[in-house]
Structures are given as C-alpha cells and as structure tokens.
Amino acid sequence: MQTMIEKVVHSDPVETAEKPHELSLRVTDLCKTYITDKQSLNVLRNVNFSMRKGDFVSVMGPSGSGKSTLLYTVSGMDKPTSGDVEFFGQNIAKLGENKMADLRLNEMGFVFQQMHMLRNLSVFDNIILAAYHASVKVSASHRRDINEKAKALMRRFDIIDIMDKDITEVSGGQLQRACLCRALINDPKMIFADEPTGSLNSKAAAEVMDKLNTLNREGATILLVTHDIKVAARTDKTLYIVDGNIQGELELGKYGDTGEAKTREKNLSNWLVNMGW
Amino acid sequence: MHLSILKNDLRRKKSVNLILTVFIILAAMLMGGSSSVLFSTTTAVDHMLEKSNVPDMSIYTFDQPDVVGAVEAWADTSDKIESYRVEDALLMMISAFSRDGRRVVDDKDLVSAFLVAVPENDSKIFNQENQALELSPGEIAIPMGFHKTYDLEIGDTLDIVADGKTTSFVISAYSKDVVFGSDMMASKRFVIHADDFSRFHSQESLDLIKNKIWSVNAKEGVSFEALSNDFSRRAVTVITTIDIATIRQTYLVPMLIATVMIVVSVSLILISFLILRFTIVFTIQEDYREIGVMKGIGIRSKVVRRIYRTKYLAIALFGGLVGFGLSFIYSNIMMRSLNDLFMMDNGVGQIVFTLIGSALVVGLSMLFSSMCTRKINKVSVVEAIRKGNTGERFSKSKRLSLYTKKSLRAPGFLALSDIFNGFRKFLVLTLTFTLGTLLIIVPLNMINTLKDKDEMMKIFGMPPHDVTMMTERAFQVAVTSGQEAIEEEIQEMQNASERAGYPVDLHLEIGYSANIFVDEPDEGMRIDVLQGIRFPIEDYDYSEGRAPIRENEIAVSTMVAETLNLQIGDTVSVQVGQEEYAMLVTAIYSSINNMGMNIRAPEAFVFTSTSPSTISIIGSFETMPEDLEKATAAIKAQNPDISISFEEDEYQRYIGGTVEAIDGMKNLIVVVVLSIIFLITCLIVRMLISREISQIALLKSIGFRCSSLSRWQIGRISIILVLSVAVGTALSLPLSHLLTGSIFGMLGASSVTAVIEPLQVYAVYPLIFLVSTITAVVVSIGQIKQTPVSEINSQE
Fold this sequence. Notes:
The complex is a heterodimer.
Chain A: E1 23-36, E2 39-52, E3 56-60, H1 67-74, E4 82-87, E5 90-91, H2 97-106, E6 108-111, H3 123-134, H4 140-156, H5 172-184, E7 190-194, H6 202-217, E8 221-225, H7 229-232, E9 237-242, E10 245-251, H8 258-275
Chain B: H1 2-12, H2 14-52, E1 57-62, H3 65-77, E2 81-93, E3 97-99, E4 102-103, E5 112-117, E6 125-126, E7 139-143, H4 144-150, E8 157-162, E9 165-177, E10 188-192, H5 194-202, E11 209-218, H6 224-232, E12 240-243, H7 244-250, H8 252-286, H9 288-296, H10 301-339, H11 348-373, H12 375-378, H13 381-385, H14 410-421, H15 427-451, H16 453-459, E13 467-470, H17 472-480, H18 483-499, E14 504-517, E15 525-533, E16 544-545, E17 553-557, H19 558-563, E18 571-576, E19 579-589, E20 598-601, E21 614-621, H20 628-638, E22 643-646, H21 647-691, H22 693-701, H23 706-746, H24 758-780, H25 782-786
Parallel strand pairs in B: 5-10, 7-9, 15-20, 17-19
Antiparallel strand pairs in B: 1-11, 1-12, 2-5, 2-11, 3-4, 3-8, 6-9, 7-10, 8-9, 13-21, 13-22, 14-15, 14-18, 14-21, 16-19, 17-20, 18-19
Helix pairs in contact in B: 1-10, 2-8, 2-10, 2-11, 2-21, 8-11, 8-15, 8-21, 10-11, 10-21, 14-23, 15-21, 15-23, 15-24, 17-18, 18-20, 21-24, 23-24
C-alpha cells in the first residue's frame, strides 16, 4: 500500500538567515531492491516524503523495516533502484560517484550508531580530516582556520580535553560527540544520523541528543533513524516505516525544555502503539 | 554439521579462501620448483660426467707406434689403473669445414677439432633432448656453440675438405659433449657415423691426422690427480690429457651461472615461506568471529580447531598438489638457459626434490594453521567475536598528527599514518620488495662482473695485454722444438707487425703440468706452473709478497696457499716430469685458472724434462690500433700465417658463448622475479583492502572520492616500495661484493670485486621494479570502487 504523507506545516518557524520554507529533501517514489541468490528483496517500496530546511525528522519502525536503508538511500550513500531524491533541489539519485562524494564531503554530515573513526588517527585528526580533504589549497593559514574551527566545535561539545587522545582512550559518549563534530566540520546543509545513541548509555545518549537539538535550533536540518522513543520524542516529526513503506507520521513540533519531554514521549508512544509497533 | 559449516565457510568467504589457495599454490610452485632447480644445478656437472661415463683421465695421442707403445706400457703396468680402453679419432683443423664452397670459420680461429665415430662406451655424447646420440651414414652432429656461432642449422649441409677432397654431411643434431662442450675448451668433437669414420680412417691423409683416445680409470682409492701425476712422470708426448678436474674447470662460468640460480632459488623459497605464514595468519584472523560464535553456542575448542584444521588441510592439499604440477613448468623455465650448457638431471631426483618442496608447503601450512588455531583454546568468546581484541582501552599508540603535517594532503597523510602506526602490517610486503630488489640487483652485479672483460681476464690469470698472436708453426715447435724455436717465431711476428706499422711487444706464456707437495709426492696436488717469457714478472698482479725473481722462487695462488697451508717464506716441492725442485714462496696471487690450482715461476727457472702443456703469445701494441680489422689485415698482409685475436676475441673464446646464456638468464630472473612480486603484491593488497573495507566505507561516507582513496592505497604501498627498493639497492652493494668474492673465492680467486653498472643498478632496474609493482597495486585496488558505504557497519 502506498502512503502519502500530509504536507508538513511548521508551527514554529526556524530562525535562520535563509528562507524558512525551502525544501531540503524531497523523496519521490523511492524503491530499493536487493537481489541475493536469485531472490529479490524489496526493502523500500515507493517511499514519498519531504523535509524543509531546519526540520528535525526521525524515522522509526520495527527491525528490518528499512529504516537504515532509507537513510542511506536518501543520503546518497546507496543508489536507489528507482525513484528520485532531491537534495536542496538537486536530484542525487542521478548523480555520478564523484559528484556524490563531493556532496557528502561539503553538504552532508553523517553520524552512525557505531562511532566509526579511523583507528590510526587521534580524535582531533579524525575531526579535521574531512575539512583538510575538502580544502582546494594546502596553506598553513587555511589549515590553521580549520584547526580553530574544530577546536571551537569540540569546546562546544565539551570534548576539547580529549582532542589529542587516541580513539580507544575515550568514552562512547565522547566519541559520538566527536563524530558529531566531524559531521559538522564542513558546515553541512543537512545531518543524517543512523541510530546515533544506539550504542550509548542513557546519560551519554541524552548529551548527544541535547547537542542535536541545539544544532537544530540553530538551523540545522537533521534526518535521524532510531528505535528509541526518547530520542524520537525530541524531534519535530516522526515517520513510521513498516516493510519499506511509510505508514504514517506524527507532528510533534519543536522540542523545547525537559519538562515537555514526558508528554511528547507519551504521545509518541501512544501513536506508535496505534500504528502497530 | 561440521561439514556443512565448512561448506558454508568455503562458499561465503570465497575471496579470502581463494587468495589463500592461490598463495599456497604459489608457495608450493616456488618451493617445489626452486628445490628442483637447486638439486639440478648443484648436481649438473657430476650428473653429466656420470651419464657420459667420463673416465678419470682421457689421453689424446698421435697414432704413432712409439707413442702408442709408451702409453700401452704405462697402462698395462701402472698399479694405479683399474681399466683402460682405446679408440680411434682423427685430428683436423676446424678450418676444414666448409659450406657452399666457403670456409665456415673465421681464419683467426686456429683451433683443432676431433672427428670421431659415435662413442658407445666412454665420454658419450648426447643430443639436445639428452638422449644418446644416434646417427645414420652421411649425418654429422655439431656442438651447440658451433651451431650458434656460425648459424648452422639442422638439415644444413656441412662439408669436410681434406686433401683437396670434399665429403658432404647433413647436420642432424646439436651435441651435448661434457668433455669438449664448454666454451673454455677450444677444441671440439664432431661426430659422424661409424661407417663414415672408418672410410676416413682407412685413408692416408695430411689433413685428417690419426689419433688414439685412451680412456683410463683409476683403481678404487686412487685419486685422478694421482693417476694424472703418475702418467705425467712418463713424459710421453701427447696432444692433450683431460681429467675430470680439467673438465670441471671448463664449466667454471656455467657453474657461476648455476650458483646465481641457486641464490635466486633460495631467496624465492624464503619469500614463499614469508607469504605463506602471512596468509595463514591473516585468514585465521578473518575466521575469528565465527570461532567466537561457535564457542559461544557451546562447541568445544577442540572441535572448533578440528573444523578449521580440516579446512586448511583441504586447501593446503589442493594448493600443494596444483603447485607441485606447476613447479615443473616453473623449474623448466628457470633452467632453460642452463639446459643448453648442461645435461640436467630430470629424473627421480628432480621429482623427489620437487615433491619434498611442495610437501613442505603443505606441512608448513598445517603447522602455521595449527599454531594460529591453538589460540582458540585460550581466547574467550568475546575476544574471538572481537577478532582477537581484548577490548582493553587506554593503550595509546604512537601516531602522526594530521594537524602538525600542514603541507600534506589527506590521502598522503593517511598513507604515512598507516605505515607509521601499523608497519607490522606491511612487514611481509617490505621484506618481499627488499628481497625482490636484491634478487634482481645481486645477480645483475654478478652477471656484470662475469661480463666485464678486464676483470675476467685478470682472474683467469692473464696479465694485461692487447693482443694474442699465433702461427701454426709456433704451435708445432712449442711441442717439438722447445722455447728457442718459439722465440724465433715470436720475433718474426713482432717484425711483421712492425712492418705493418703496428709495433708490438710480444711475450710467451707457457703452462706446464706439475705436481706440488710439502712432504710426500703422493700427497701432492696436480697444478699448472705458469711462466711468462720476455715479460717482467713484477707486472703480474700479486695480493701479497713480492714477485719471484730467482730460479728457486715461486708465487702461489691463494687456492694453493690455502690447500697446502703455505705462507710467504715457506719452501715447497714442485715435480715437473721426472724432476723435483725445492722452491721458496715469495708471493700469493689471485687466479681461477685450473680452479685456482696454479703457481707462477720466474723466467730464470728452466724446465728441462717436459714439454709445455699450454702456450700463448700475448703482447701490447705501442699504440693500440683504433681500427682492429684494418690492423689485422695489415699484419696478415706481412705474414698470412699469423692468426690474431684481440682481448674481445679472447673473452669471446673463454666466456663468449656463455654471455648469451648469461643475458638470457638475467632477463629470465628479472621476468620471473617481477612476475612473482607482481602476483604477491596483487594478492597482499587485496587482502589488506578486504580487511579495511569498513575504513574505506567510512572515508567514502565523509566524502572521499574513489580517486582519493586510490591515492591513499597507492601512496602507502609506494612509500613501502621506495623504502624497500632503497634498502634493497643499498644492501645489494655489500651483498654483491660478498657473494661475488665468496663464489669466485671458492674457485680460487681471492680479490674479485663485483662490477657495478650505476645506471642499471641505481636507475633502470629499480625503476622497472617500481613501475611493475605500482601497476600491480593499481590493478588490485578495484575493490575500492565496489565498496558501498553501507559496508561501514562491517567494522568490528
């Protein structure tokens, strides 16, 4: 069954210098089929949804429903079998490998469930690597600017004291915040997060979500996959996906203070139960 | 159940299992093939001597009643002889061969040849297929060198012009003749059918001189040196005597080539050992997660180990078997250049050595897999699932900082960082590249040393000279009329040269066969006494001491000094013919002539009771002619009997035919080593990438293009490669000197230094190596493009 999502209306427009209602992502008839051992598996089936700049959207669904595949396909990390994905007006489903890599480097930020980092590099080097790679010129002053920017991000995420540490020397929460810093180093237009709190304890998860909410308030557009109600409750809207199909969405509005959290979680939980979770 | 686990494993981990199988095949091929090469080359000369049934001593005499009687008397009465046989032969000048009415050989090759019927008992001759020679009437077999030098092919007609009469033969085989086969043996044997031979032999001829060949075998316990000494005391006039030591000496250059091949084979065995261990360890680490899961569900460690050992046994047996088959092709390729020179043992011995080499690979594979799976007993379930990591943190590693390397681009930095932080991962590759460089450059230096005319002339014991001259008369009077008659001939040659406008200062180099001993003559050794006439003895090369000047002084070669434990100032007895002389050692020098068994006597010393065994007339021009052909023509215009050969010609005569084989072998080694390194690099790079899939996916996810990732991969292997080639090249220098010194040292030359061609050693070959190996990396990194970003989650 094909489900169209109602047009999202922002009750609390984002205060940014750019146009508040600009579309950041439009997904149209997106399908993804895997073929393994003579069998084809339709993981995504005619998915349609859109996001505006400044939106913070979560995707929920049971295991194997296609959440992560949706995230990877709409972020250009995987090619769709059919359908279109417009990222800030550009159809990335048709983009070549190199252009897609450039887009990921300069306009997208990624955070994964596992805190994937290069083992041989320090926390700080992992953060600045993408920025160094994005630089057209190799100049000391430019690199100094990158270093300062990375330090500022680390200060902001309270991890400046681990900058020279090895990635095996820091906690999971610190490492995930470092992954966030890395995702932000090139000022991406949108952040994609695949269960960013999945490997963290509740305190560390809350810290990471605080940072994502702050970023969103400052104008960042975020698409996040989770199966944690507490995490989804802190997003503006939740999409519910089953068998590669979006079954419904719940508009939660902008997350404000901690007192509001319980109510949002309860509403979301009730909705999910109604959706058959 | 175990079987289905194995079947699934083999199906699911196709690429890693395939790489392991290919490596085992490669290792089995290298080890089996190299063992076979090792066996065949080390036994080559002895195998040829045995197969050809070469007697302890062959004596070539004229068919004259007094000479035949004297030899017969010695052979019948000597207590050192077990048995002897005598056969007929004909001595002719090689210039008697003609093709289409024209002489086949250049007139400067004043060389004699023996015409014989197919030998059936002693000193047998074989064809290129290593089968005993069989000829029909009207057919002739020619030596391989003769075929190559004069472009004579099987099926060509070759005429023998004797006493103005031409007899035509059809060339039907290229012969392998252990006695006369070496380039260093100037005379050659040409073989015809027994009927044709009888016809020639029954006629009286001036051009085909009747000879006898005496094949003499010593009694058990009597050395051939003792036999040779016993005969030399009889002072019989002979054309030549050839004993086994002499034959071995003539294969000196091919033996050097064989030694290079042995060095290459040993190194390749070492490389295959390295890659085998690396691959097994790598593959078992890949299986760790499955091992953890099996332990987790309660399968006992012993059973888990058995499952994996069965898997590796199956792969090792399959790889070993295929490698065993391929090793025959490999060893045949490696020995192709030696096959022209030697008759290799391709029999049971070779198969056994190949089998042992291949079986060793299977055994080593099982040993390595057993050692690696032993850890299964100790490792906890969680550790195994984490692929051997204990999960222990706070183990800070040494690392490079990107932010301190301000001038490096990200891919370059990643390449450096990988090497700096995880050099162990590249250790096998580093060792392989270093060994590969050594394998190319060390043989290259040794081969360049062999190809260096000056160095070779020096170690053959020849003093520096420009030209060698000879006339047929000088050749004859040397044997029959003594030194004074030769000197007249020398004077005539000098006069002719001066009249032609090329004044030359000639002198005579004579060699006498002698016995040298300290106490008892029977404990002595057969040596050559070298004597330069009309040449200042101070001008020869001595490594220590002073030139022997007085008649009771000699210089001894390093080999003689070492064997008899002689030092400068010692006295030694030299027995030439019937006479015995007490001589004082005044100097030691380096020489490989007669396997280093020679001494040098001053001109003041006069041998009274024997004829020289070798003579040559050599000298230097006042001014070296620029146009050698023009000079030759001018001198021959003054005296047509003079044959002239320059340093180049002599080099060709001693080593010439071998040079082609040397070059062929050098090219073969380069091609084989480059191919093997190419394959190893491809496989190791693929293995490294398969382990880094998640890191590649991570870098892709943050926006690295495939081209940047390729630069990272190529960059790090290039750094390793450049470092290894630099280390290999640097090591090759002392190693070449060491190996060249010790190999020539074994042959009697103590002061040989490797000849280094800087352009080849420091530029051309390292560059070829770099280009070939980087090409291997480029063709192996295709996996990067195929890696989807979703593989990021395969990171453990």
